[in-house]
Amino acid sequence: MNFEFSDDQNLLREQAQGFLQSKCPLETVRAVLEGDQAYDTALWKGITEMGWTATTIPEAYGGIGLGHLELCVLAEELGRSLAPVPFSSSVYLATEVLLMCANEAQKQAWLPGLADGSIIGTFAIAEGGKAPSRHNIETRVADDRISGCKIPVPDGDVADFSVVLACDGDQHSLFLVDLKDPGVTKRVLKSIDPSRSYAELNFDSAGAELLGEAGAGFALTDALFDRAAILFAFEQVGGAHASLEMAKAYALERYAFGRPIASFQAIKHKLADMYIALTLAHSNCYYGAWALSTDASELSLAAATARVSATEAFHECSKENIQTHGGMGFTWEFNCHLYYRRAKALALNLGSLTRWKDKLVTQLEESNKLANTN
Amino acid sequence: MDFNDTPEQAAFRSEARAFLSANATLKSESVVQQETEAEYLVRARAWQKLKAENGWACLNWPTEYGGRASTPMERIIWGQEEGKFEVPTGPYAIGLGMCGPTMIAYASEEQKREHLPIMASGERIWCQLFSEPSAGSDLANLRTKAVRDGDDWVINGQKIWTSGAHYSDWGILVTRSDPTQLKHKGLTFFFLDMKSPGVEVKPIKQISGASNFNEIYFTDVRIPDAQRLGAVGEGWKVSITTLMNERLAVGNAGGPDVPDLLRLAATTDIDGEPALNNAAVREKIATWHCQRSGLKYTNYRTISALSRGGVPGPENSITKVVSAAKQQDLASFAMDLMDMGGILREDVEDKFLNSYMGAPGYRIAGGTDEILRNIIAERVLGLPQDIRLDKQVPFNEVPQSS
How far apart are CA A82 and CA A338, in angstroms? Predict the structure, then answer.
């Protein structure tokens, strides 16, 4: 058994850490949080020049053709640094869905731009404060024209195209929409995590091109979200780890009652619990990475498991990091809230924790894992 | 990343599986049978003997002491395969997992040749005499007195929580030989025949109704100095060797787990619907599945590190913390699913009830939840120790319970 990343993958991790430590300190995240820009353009340029956006795209479409394990490594480091860039929308969502189900012409049209970073893509499904389902999607396509409103769409204001889930007669399908179409209007939204950008996309008879099989909208979305959940889980674990490290550093330097607060059991046990949550999530992510890279039959179960435990770990670590900091933890000035915000945004971006837990149990039932897990 | 064995590992695994299939029943195919402890011990002794005769005892021990000199990976593969079968290994866990390795590290060559092969073959069962009424989590607070008398030491005092002492033949013992030294100095370590005059064993009845542990009283028990392990006053160092091995021996709490709960929830009814359709039930199952899966793959990562020559570190402490709490909560929830019927304990083999009554002990034995969190905080995260009042003073001046 070898349940570790390879030497080459660990080398990639070291390179990514070095790059992000120098190009993406927390000041960079805060600048996007407090400023008007949607993302840090210099960081994004650096990331695309390093070829990270091209990781899983085959060489025939201008990519590097590496596997998903490499992408998992990068995701963890991007999550650790809270990188304020549209990487996840463009890579985990748009690139993944095109690789899954685009036809040759669509791949030729979009993948080279996604690979070199000249094009940003995203995926639009939500329509406000409700869980998207077959019963409530109102965005409609007829005669290759799309109308409706998607909100929130991650990086919707900066994306060049979006894949959109819409009603297609009495079924649901995915559509490719060029966001430069005059029928598209964008509105930048305020969100819980302004270090990332969210928009409302309004479609008024904009051009829409079927992506994948007609009627397969929800099935493709589920398959895409399984894959994306594992990549996002690595981001979540990276962020959880950074939160734990921040709490630990503060507990060691902060004195109360004549001693570092890190010497009090109340704080030690809190940090131990953060470590436990992080370790369980990290190991579930490893399993997810393996399932993703091998297209294993248990991919959906692995994805839901990684998703649920990484969501809970980042929540735990980011909120207890604030608690460890005491009063300074909830000031705007301290950086604790950057993790707390990102944790919540990532917890919601592929659907709620409740839905993922339900899905996890459905997978347990369906794959009848009970008989042969050990 | 892959889950596959190397060709050598695969060959070893099939050899292990062939032996097990020929001589034991898979857990999934076995029927729980009621038996007395005496009957269980007969089965355990027979199983250990059979393993020893076929080269499957104490895999990591040197061959001259009854082991197989296996690699760490082979030991793990054996553990995985044996774990699938219904075999009675419990009485040997402490002797072979902790006492044996301590003897290997500290006993004389002659003593090793005398004691280890018959320990490996199951002929003699060993126990570990460490905890005392005032020395549980704070083990170094132990007071059992050892006084030198000629070629012997004379032992007086009391041990407690000694697993299996009532059926053990020999034991390892840590004592205080000099109370005027600092707490962690002045300890001396021995091994002894449990039939020595002056050793009295009294079983403790637990809340589960079982009696796995004992109190041991020592009244003028004589131990030859030749049975001392390590130097006089170096008993703490020897104890650490034992406890490092406990880290490997104490693991997953066991008991009914997510698959059992899924089965129960699929067959139990809430208002005409299977309980498994209930959102609150699903939420709980998902949470426990994540813990179970997280522990499984944490273990895989540890195994990967071991197979590259690493050593098991304190991060293994999470296994018991997580699994023991899960065992307790999951059992409690399963009983809740049975509604008012959950009160009953008519069926003495009911796994959820037994797990519910056993879990409190598991959260304490082999390092409490609290001590394990301290270990994670101090040895994994590098946080400082608590301020202590017992470090810089002789043991006989350390504040004690009245």
Answer: 8
